[in-house]
Write a structure and sequence with these properties.
There is one protein chain. The chain is mostly helical and about 160 residues long. It has two domains: about 70 residues, Orthogonal Bundle (434 Repressor (Amino-terminal Domain)), CATH 1.10.260.40; about 40 residues, no CATH class. About 50% of the residues lie in helices and about 0% in strands. It contains eight helices and no strands. The longest helix has 15 residues. The N and C termini lie far apart (about 80 Å).
C-alpha cells in the first residue's frame, strides 16, 4: 500500500458524508490519536480498526480494504457463487466499471424506438449505410449470380 492511501480513502469517505475525523473516531470507537496517525504518518489500520471503520461508514469490509489499497481487487474476488444477490450485483457493477473504459467508443447507435432511429442495428454506423441494407444487397447479388458452368448445368 502506498503511504497515505488509507487516509486518502478515508478522507474521501468523510467528505462524502460531511464528517470530521472526530466524528469517525466516535462512530468507529477508534481513538483520535489513531486517526491522526493514519493522516499524518500514513499508517495502515489493523483489521479490527478497519472493521470498525467499515461498520461506522456502513460499508462492507472487503470493498473498503480494496478502496483503501490494503487489498488488490484480484485478492478480494471470489467465485460468483459465493456472493449473495446484492453482493453479486455489486460485483457485476464493479467488473463492468473496470471494463467499460477499455471498450472503444465508435459512435455505436443503440436500438431505440424514436422516429429518427427505428430500432437500427447496434453495429450501424452513422457514416455508412446500415448493415441490414448491406446484408440484403449481398443476399440479392448472390441470388442473382448465374450458376457456374459445370456438369449439373449441361454446359
Amino acid at each position: 500500500m502506498a503511504d497515505g492511501q488509507w487516509w486518502t480513502y478515508l478522507q474521501g469517505q468523510l467528505e462524502q458524508r460531511g464528517w470530521k475525523p472526530a466524528h469517525l473516531a466516535r462512530a468507529a470507537g477508534v481513538s483520535e490519536s489513531r486517526i491522526s496517525d493514519w493522516r499524518n504518518r500514513g499508517s495502515p489500520p489493523t483489521i479490527p480498526n478497519a472493521r470498525a471503520v467499515a461498520e461506522a461508514l456502513g460499508e462492507p469490509l472487503v470493498p473498503l480494504l480494496v478502496g483503501a489499497g490494503l487489498l488488490a481487487p484480484g485478492e478480494a474476488r471470489q467465485s460468483l457463487a459465493a456472493y449473495s444477490v446484492r453482493e453479486l450485483l455489486d460485483e457485476i457493477d464493479a467488473r463492468f466499471r473496470e471494463v467499460t473504459p477499455l471498450v472503444p467508443d465508435l459512435g455505436v447507435k443503440h436500438p431505440t424506438s424514436s422516429r429518427g432511429n427505428p430500432l437500427q442495428l447496434v453495429a450501424d454506423s452513422p457514416s455508412t449505410e446500415p448493415m441490414r441494407v448491406q446484408q440484403e444487397r449481398e443476399w440479392l447479388s448472390e441470388a442473382e449470380r448465374p450458376d457456374e458452368p459445370g456438369p449439373d448445368t449441361g454446359a
